[in-house]
Structure formats: structure tokens, C-alpha cells
Amino acid sequence: MVRYLFHRLWQSVVTLVLASIVVFIGVRALPGDPAIAMAGEEADPAAVEAVRQQLGLDQPLPVQYFKFVGHALSGDFGKSVRTGTPVSEMIGATLPVTVQLAVFAMLVAVIVGMLAGVVAAVFRGRWPEWGANGFSLLALSVPTFWLGILAVLYLSVQLRWFPASGYVSPFQHPLRGIYYLALPAIILGLTHAAVVQRQTRSSMVETLTADFVRTARAKGLGRGAVIFRFGLRNSLIVVTTIVGLQLGGLIAGAVVTERIFSLPGIGKLTLDSVFTRDYPVIQAVVLVITTAYIVINLLVDFLYTVIDPRMRISGRAR
Amino acid sequence: MTEPLLEVRDLEVAFGATAAVRGASLSLNAGDRVAIVGQSGSGKSTTAHAIIGLLPGSGRVTGGSIRWRGEELAHAGEKRLRRLRGREVGLVPQDPMSNLNPVARVGRQVAETLVAHRMCPRREAWARAVELLGQAGIPEPARRARQYPHEFSGGMRQRVLIAIGLACRPDLLIADEPTSALDVTVQRQILDHLEKLTRDLGTALLFVTHDLGLAADRADRVVVMSEGRVVETGPARDVLNAPQEPYTKRLVAAAPSLTGPMHESEPASDVVLEVSHVVKDYRVRGRGGTLRAVDDVSFTVGHGRTTAIVGESGSGKTTTAHLILGLAEATSGTIQLDGAEVAGLRGAKLRAARRAMQPVFQDPYASLDPMWTVERIVTEPLRTFGDGDRASRRRHVAELLDQVALPAALAQRYPNELSGGQRQRVAIARALALRPSLVVCDEPVSALDVLVQDQILGLLSSLQEELGLSYLFISHDLAVVRSLAHEVLVMRAGRVVEQGPVGQVLSAPADDYTRQLLAAVPGAATFMQ
Amino acid sequence: MTIAAETPAPSARVHGRVGRRLLRNPLGVIGGALLLIVLVAGVFAPLLAPYAPTEVHFQTPFQQPGTVGFALGTDDLGRDILSRVLYGTRASLEVGALSVVFAVIVGVPLGLLSGYWRPLDALISRLADLMLAFPFLILAVGLAAINGGGLANAAIALGIAQIPAMTRVVRADTLRLKETDFVLAAHTMHAGARRILGQHVLPNAASAIIVQATVIMPVAVIGEAVLSFLGLGIQPPAPSLGIMLSDAQQYLFRTPWPGIFPGVALALICLGFNLFGDALRDALDPKSTR
Asked: How far apart are CA A213 and CA B101, in angstroms?
């Protein structure tokens, strides 16, 4: 198993390095000369050259890449072309908002999704299944950003149940913070709840019709015991992987949700930097997001080996 | 007279609108051993499951009664059945691989039963489970109870399932094909052990099996089922030696046995395949070691003759077949087909060699591409080798189907519209398309019911006579091999333990292992009498 | 020689059976009908729409639905919402179809290769990991930053994002199929990789590929709407359901209708694909018969 963990770690490092190269090259492929952008359109060539040297853009690409990685590792992503603030500060200010949003949304997704999935699997062929399946079908089909817009209009502006926009840190004001994040998190979590529901349902149905469950019933175990002891544990394994894989979609969703609810998160930072071509910020944001994705999926895989005993020995299963 | 322990009368079970059991009756007294015998689809397992109220899917009891000590169970509530299951009636299910929860410790799975029926205080359940595992014949039970199912072999898992089935000392144990997934020698050990345990506990046994010989070996009374009905009931010996009903007669006649004529052992005139000193090593992943799957195997297949390789799982018999077919490369040794070396060939030469030998595989459901019509399947070899044009291939199909006794109208059907026996005939037709000198049959009948198995064996043997085919026949079953083979090799753990003419190997085995295999053939004792 | 004592062969044809099972599933029929409506609306938008999607009527902004001449009302510039929804649906379907084609063209060969040849598997799996690490929005952000927005770029970004999933589906099927006895038998006939992959593996994997395509479609349709909503996808004044929602958001307090219809259209498109895809998967999977 240790071998497997090292193997996974190594794979992740390779992916990370590849991702950083893609980001580096991608940013170099952006149109426009960042030196001119920084120095200003009317600056004379000497001034532009000076900026270029200052940014290290006159050096060969591999050198630039290693400098970029070296700086990134020490948390230095350069300064925003637009505002001159260090990029690390900008990320430090926005990242927590997005992480909180994502965590709450994931909680919503897992709780609602698993509940609906269990209901659908246990009441197969009866109305609760239709209800739970209908919910996930709708949540998958209705674009959540549209739902978000309508929710702001009706729930926040007209009924005033929720704040329409703004952010309060849950660490400073726990209740107010959660109150401000609740609606965005529910909206963002819905699609993912649908995905979790479907996976939970199919894995529970598979487990509950498995031979070993019939054997358990033949031992004299009740239906309830079988559902909880067998079905839930096995579907938990499936849901764990889903959570990792859903992260990409969650980040994409966060960008839109932050825009609709005017949350000062990393999604908003991304959009702003794209529209202003603030390339150090784009580069840093993309790198942070991909790194987060890779690291979290690595953690999920490690967690997996804890939950599934088959993984502990062979390192591969399923 | 006392009331029977279990009395099933005119039981009817249906899945949706399809009837699976149509009036089955049987009765069983305390301590009895009764076997239900039938082919797939006979309703034997369904009857057994109906007794403990665990019919799968849409299954419902639609008629008749199930009396347990006089109490009606056919429509008993879940609460009553839960007390019955495990406590009064135990179950040993069929497939040891899928019947244990993969993510729970084995000890816990045994303890669960005890706790569910309050057989002992929760704290003592684990210790009792370890004890039960030991009784079921699991060595070092204290250590192994902490392990997970995937760390156990098939035979050991079946022992765990037996420990679970007998944990609460039930009055009746239902064993549903408990060993059909296991090797014959393991099967024998486990059934011996099961017999001893149930005798000691005085538990009655309801034994469900497709194997008439096994039923006769293990039960006092036999209930033969077919198409949801009980065809014949009686003492095991009588049913086997003097069957009354036509169906049972056919079943007894078709069962491969250790009696009946064998091929004469005169040497073949010329040799089609000559394998000498073949070795196959596999690298073991991760540990840098090697596993010798085939170890110094030599034999020949004579023209118009059959050489059979018999062995249990892990004996290297299938690997040997793959080496000959060029699906894997031998580490050393030579394989000569019609006098030309085939091992290590590439390109055009390998192509030519492959033309001369064709396979028939075990599972007729997996060996035909489900997306293709029968015609396309049968002509695949012709097309890959570029033989003939469209019209001539079409004529050829009709001819080939005729040879395997299939109507030509089947040519446009898809495999899943055919029965298992028909599929295996299609596979044989495909193997014959290129007129190969050698046909390699890898367990060609082991997935089939006994009546169909008998027909396919008959077909193979008549094709050999008509076309002068040579077979390499791989099987785990000595009885199946008996009627067909001229030469027999017995393999174990990659080595040949015994080889020679069929008469010599089966009638006067020199090796201990061959004798074990022979003794383990179900029904051997009963048929011999 | 008679062939006795065997279960009677089912008489139905495989291919006919899938269609019949689909028709027997009410949800599948509803999904199919929805899809048909949506496809007709998209394909024949130029014939069905009463106005050009960009045609402005400054005299009649913010008309309510049901107004004569503007069945679904008008937006802030007096553009006909029905026409814009029809053309927007067309654009959504275009992006969806393009990204499916993209994912199939790249993903299916990658899946076949990585399933069939072990050495390639590690390489392709790393590539898929890499692609997964860039959420589609980030990809789209990058592409939009490099090339500017637009329908094609949105489709490419969405298609790339779907490649790993498609590759995984095809790879899994290839791994399963290459171990089957009928492929083994083909090997003994000296069939080459091209023959085995093309004639045995691909036809058997086709159903999984089609089902995956029905999964990609709604994801891509919503993805396009999201990108256009954010200004990274289709650029105004070209019609897109996402752009309509983005525009409508600004004057939603005055009239909600321009923000309702595009959303309903999106939901119907996706519902159609999801329902039909589910039914198709059930019909194709023999185990799913209840």
C-alpha cells in the first residue's frame, strides 16, 4: 500500500509540473506584449526594454520558467499589472471566500444528495423514488446560474429572506457569515447534489441487490440493518471519489455564483483579470486552482485507502 | 408418526407473469439429507429461496404451502421470517466470491449472525465467531477472523459461509450449489466437512445441485426437478441406478461417468502437434520474482486423435493451450505443428501456423461477438485470411452450420437469440471454417447443462470421425474426458504428474493426485456399484 | 440430431429490442419528444422566427408576453424574445454538437489506444489527469484570453473538458472487451489490432459512447450559457441564451420575462437530453430490466 501511495504522489507531482508548464506557456501565448502593457502604450522603446528586463522577459524561456516556478514556490507571483498590488495578497484576500463557498456547497451537495440517493434506493419503484429522481433530474437540467438570478430576485429582493449580495467572514461573525453564504452555497450545491444523488442511488441499488446482502438477510439481519451497514458504507466509498472529481465543476460554478451574488472570491478575481488582461494574476489564479484540484484529488485517493480495505492490500481495487 | 420438519406442497412461484415453480412438493424430517437436482431454469434454487422468503426481484409465492414444523410460512411476515432465517434455517449460498461483504472483517460477518439472534452476549460474539471459524476448518481462526474476504481463497470463503450458516445451530441447512464454483478436490474436502458438522449437530440438510452424482453421494433422498415441477423423488441410489421417469433416465444417461467404453490405446500413425519441454514463466508484478505457470510439459496429439489435459485451477492447463495457440509466448521449449516449429513465430509464418489450428472456448456466451450475426461470426476466419468471395463464403456457412447440426436459417440471428448449446455449436462451426488440422477445446462443455453437454461431446466425437479432426481437449473433469480422449495428461501446479493412454490413466492411475481426482468425481462411488 | 432440452431462444432482435424498450419507458418517450421539439426549434429557427434575432424595435421595448406580434414579449431594445430564444437554442445546440464531436474525435481514439496498449495507458492517463486539473471554465478563460470569445472557442473549451470522461468510458470498455473470448478467438485467426479495435471493440463500445454523448450534450449546453453569460462565450449581438440572461439580469426588476424564457429553454433542452440519455442507457443495459 505504501508503494501505491508513493506511486500516486509521484503521479500527482508529474501532473503538477505539467500543469505549471501549460500555464506558463499559455500565458506566454496571450496576445499583446506585457512589457508594453506595463510601460504604457506611448512609452519609448528604451523604457519598454527596461520594463522587459525588470520582468525578466529578455531571458530564454526555460530560465524564465524556472524563475517562475521558484518564485511561485516561495509564494511570490509578482505584482498585478493593473493595481501594482502583490498577486499573493490578492489571492490571500479572495481565496478564503471561495473555499468557504465551495465547502458549504459541497456539504449541501453531499447531505442533500446522499439523502435523496438513499431514499431513491430504499423506496425503489415507489413514489419517494420518483420524487428523489425527479429532483436530481431537474437539478441537472435547470442551469443553476439562472436559478441563482431568480433566487436573488424573488427570495432576496422581494421576500428579503436572504441578503442579495455581499460577504461576511464566518470566522468573525459565524452566524451572519453563514447567513450570507447560505443562498449561494445552496444554489451552487444543487447540481452537485444531483450528481451525488445519482451515484449514491446506483451504488446502493447495486449493493442491496448483491449476493452478499441476500446472504446477510439469510442470516436473519433486518432490512434496515442491511441498508445502513452495507449500503451506506459501500456508497460512501463511491461518494468520496465523486467529491474529488466534482471539484473542477465546483470551481467553475463558483466563478458564476460569485458573479451573481457579488462575492469577493477568486472567481471574481479571475474574471476581472481576464477582462483587464492582468496576466500575472491570471497565471497565479490558474496555477492555484489546478494545484488545489490535484492536491485534493490526491487526498481523496489517500482517504480511499482508509475506507476501502481492499485498497489497503493491493493498492488497486474496483 | 411425528410431523415432518419441512413440508412443501404444490408450491408455485412466479417472477412477474413468468412461472418459475409450478407445483413442487417435498418433505423433510429432522436430520434428513435431501437433494434437489435439476438443470438451470428447473426452479430448484427458487424453491429453496422461497422456503426462507428470500425470492429475488419480483418473485412471489403464488400458490401452495410451505409448512415448517406445521407452521405455514408461504405468506409469513417479515418479522417471523427474520427469526427463522439464520436461527432455524441456515443458508450456504452458491458463489463464495460474491457472498461475503468485501468491506467487513470475516469474523464480524460471523459474529453478526450470533448478535442478530442474541445467541450470545455482544462481547462474547467475536470469541464465539473465532471458535466457529475454527470448527469450519479454517486454520489460525483468531488471526484470519481479522482479515477481509479478498484475503481468502474460494474454498476458505466457502468455509466461512458454512460457519455463518451453522452459527446458530439451525435445524435445517439449505446448501445452494455450495461448491459448484470450486475445484473437485476442494469440493470434496468441503462437502466432507459439511457432512460431518451437520451430522454432529443433527442438522437436516437440503442440498441444491445440478449434479446428479453429487446428489447421490451426499443425500439420502433425491428430488429431481425440471421446468418448475418435481419429476421424480426417491432414495438416492434407486433414482440413480433405476430411474423411473424418462427425464431422469436421460439425465442419468447423459451424466459423464467413470464407466462406459474408452478409446483403445493403439499409437497414432502420425503426429499433428508435438510439444516438448515447454516452460512458461510470468513475472510477478512488483516483487521482481517469477511464477512458473507451465513447467517442462511434453506431449503429442496424433492425427485424428484427442489428447486431453486435465487439471484444477492453477494447474497451467489453459496457459498451455494459449502457448500452443500463440496467444502467449513460451519461455523455452518447442511446439511443432505438422512438423514445423510454431513457438516464437512472427508475421506471415505465425499467420500460416494459426490457420492450421483453431480454438473453441469455455463460455459460449463470451466467445461470440454479440453485435455480429451467426453468418458473420462463422465466416470471420475466412475473411481475416481472405478466403473465397462473398458468395462462396455464404455457401460455406450453410455447409458449416449443417455439420454442427444447426438449421441454416440461424445464419442471420444474433448470439443472444441462441441457447447455450446452439452458441457452442456456432463456435465449433467457426473453428471448422478453415479446415484446421488441430482444434484446441478449452473446457468447451463446462458451462453447459448436462444434457446439452452430452450432445456437444457427441458432436465433437462424430466430427472427429467424419473429418479426421485432431483435438487438444482441456478440462477439469476426468469423467468428461473419458469418452472422448485417447491420451490423457494430468497437470498440477504447472507440472505433468501423469500421462498416458486414457485406459491406463483412468483405470490404473500411478500418481496419488490422479487417484485423488478420480475419487473426487461426484457420483463415482454410486455409479461404480 | 435434435437439439432438445434447452431453453427456447428469445426471438427478438437485439437492435429492435433497444428501440422497443425505449418506447416502453414513458420517461424516454417524454425525453424523445422534448428533444424532437428542441431540435426542430433549433434547426428551423430561421423559418420559425418572426424576426431576425438582432432586429431592434426601439418603439416597443419591454413588451409583455402575449403582445400581438411579440408572442413572448420584447427586451430592453425591443428585440423579439421568441426569435432570440429560437436562435439562442440553435446556438446552444451548435455548441453542444460541436463539443460532442470534438470529445468523440479526440476521446474515442485515446480511449481505444490506452485501453489496448498498456505502455500508452500511463501516458494518456497522465494527459487526462492534466486536462481534468483545468476546469472547463479555466480553459475557456484561457482560450478567451488568447483568442477572444466566440462560439467556436466555447465549443473547443467545452469539448476539451469532456475528453477525459469520454476517454475513460471508452478505455474501460476496451479493457473489458479485449479480454473477452471473442477477441481472443480473433487473435487466433491472426486478426490485427486494427481489425480487432475496428470490428469488435468499437461496435461493442458504441452504446457507451452514445450514452456518454447524451451526458456531454446538456453539460455543454449549460456550459455555453455560462460562458456567454460571463462574456467569455458567444459575443453580442449574436443571440445566445446565456447572453439573454446576462442582459435580462440588469432590468429584471422592471420585467422578469426576458429572464424567464431563455432559462426555461435551457432547462427544456437539458431535460430532453437527460431523460432521453437515461432511457437509452436503461434500454441498452440488459441488466437494468426491472
From this structure: 7
pLDDT for position A315: 41
**For the segment C82-119, what is each residue's pLDDT rounded down to a tens digit?**
889 999 999 999 999 999 999 999 999 999 999 999 88
- Reported ipTM exceeds the 0.90 cut: no
**Cα–Cα distance between C35 and C271 in angstroms, integer?**
9
Of B78, B98, B102, the CB nearest to A310: B102
What percentage of chain A reaches a pLDDT higher than 90? 8
CA-nearest residue to A205 within chain B is B57
CB distance C129–A289 less than 8 Å? no
Query: Which residues in C lie closer than 8 A to residue B366 (C-beta atoms)?
Result: 180-182
Chain B residues lying within 8 Å of A212, measured CB to CB = 98-102
Looking at residue C221, its pLDDT comes to: 93
Q: Which residues of C touch A274 (CB under 8 A)?
A: 141, 144-145, 232
Partners of A140 on chain C (C-beta within 8 Å) are 218, 270, 274
* Ranges of chain C whose pLDDT falls below 70: 1-17, 145, 285-290
- Smallest Cα distance from B406 to chain C, Å: 9
* C57, amino acid identity: H
Asked whether the beta carbons of B163 and B135 are under 8 A apart, the reply is: yes
User: In this complex, do B405 and C3 lie within 8 Å of one another by their Cβ atoms?
Assistant: yes
A–C interface: beta-carbon pairs under 8 A: 123
CA distances to A11, A118, A192, A248 from C134, in Å: 16, 32, 18, 7
- Cell, residue B196: 460431518
- In Å, the largest CA–CA distance within chain C is 88
In this structure, what are the phi and psi dihedrals at residue C67, rounded to the nearest 5 degrees? -65, 145
Q: Using one digit for the tens of pLDDT, what is the confidence trace for C177-196?
A: 998 899 999 998 888 889 99
Please tell me the pTM assigned to this model. Answer: 0.84
Q: What is the pLDDT of residues B284-340, one digit of tens each?
A: 765 567 888 999 999 999 999 999 999 988 888 999 999 998 888 889 999 998 888
Query: Is 90 exceeded by the pLDDT of residue B57?
Result: no
- CB-CB under 8 Å, B86 with A220: yes
**Facing residue for A141 by CB, picked from C146, C218, C245:** C218
Residue A158: pLDDT band by 50, 70, 90 thresholds? confident
Give CA separation, C258 vs B152, C58, C250, in Å.
65, 16, 10
Nearest to B24 by CA among B63, B55, B59: B63
Q: What is the pLDDT of residues A33-44, one digit of tens each?
A: 667 766 666 777
Rounded-to-integer distance, Cα A113 and Cα A116, Å: 5
pLDDT, residue C265, reads 92
Q: Do C130 and A19 touch (CB under 8 A)?
A: yes
| pLDDT in the model for residue C6 | 42
pLDDT at B529 over 50: no
**Starting at the edge strand that comes first in sequence, how are the strands of the sheet with B172-176 ordered?**
B89-92, B172-176, B204-209, B33-37, B221-226, B229-235
Which of C183, C187, C189 is the mutation pick for testing B, counting most B CBs within 10 A?
Answer: C189
Sheet with B357-360, strands from edge to edge, namely B357-360, B438-442, B470-475, B306-311, B487-492, B495-501
Partners for B (CB, 8 Å, 3+ pairs)? A, C
Indicate the pLDDT class of residue A151, thresholds 50, 70 and 90: confident
CA distances, A11 to each of A1, A22, C129 (Å)? 15, 16, 9
Residue C231 gets which letter from DSSP?
A: T
Between C230, C263, C275, which is nearest A271 by CB? C230
* Whole-number Å distance between alpha carbons of C284 and C14: 9
> Is A283's Cβ below 8 Å from some Cβ in C?
no
A257: nearest CA partner in chain C: C226
- Which residues of chain C lie closer than 8 angstroms to B458, CB-CB? 1
Cβ neighbours for B3, distance < 8 A, ≥ 6 positions apart = B69, B70
